[in-house]
Amino acid sequence: MDELLPRDSQVRAFVTSPHAAGELKARGVKVALGDVSDGSHVGGAALNAYCAVLIHEAAIDDRERSFAKDPAEVLAAWAEGINDAEVSRTIVVWNRPPAAELASIRSEKVVVDVAERTPVEIAAEVARLEDLAQLD
What we know:
The protein has one domain: NAD(P)-binding Rossmann-like Domain (Rossmann fold). Helix 1 links the parallel strand 1 and strand 2. The strands form 2 sheets. Strands 3-4-5 form a 3-stranded parallel sheet. The two termini are 24 Å apart. Helix 2 runs parallel beside helix 4. It is α/β, with parallel strands linked by helices. The chain has 5 helices and 5 strands; from the N terminus they run βαβαβααββα.
């Protein structure tokens, strides 16, 4: 968030933890709270957003997911939500090539590989990609 907050555009976060939501709101971030496996929650959080950043950890960690039984279903829900919200650009922060479920995302899309990068480097790359007029 430190790389994204000093910008002119609005920063929104979609989180599953009320505690995380409170901390982000205190920093001036618009927050949507919901189930990461529900495509309608993802789409609602992304509505009218230019760019969405999908973080792989949220698809594979141990958080509760009411609408998916495995990471592939979470990714399919993300794709559905991003497409429904008509997001223009999607940045996927991933530790391996993105799953086939994300191939259906219709927006301009790029992957930021997290291998051998610090969180600060990853955030700076996401901010740089979000600012580009067009992805290469």
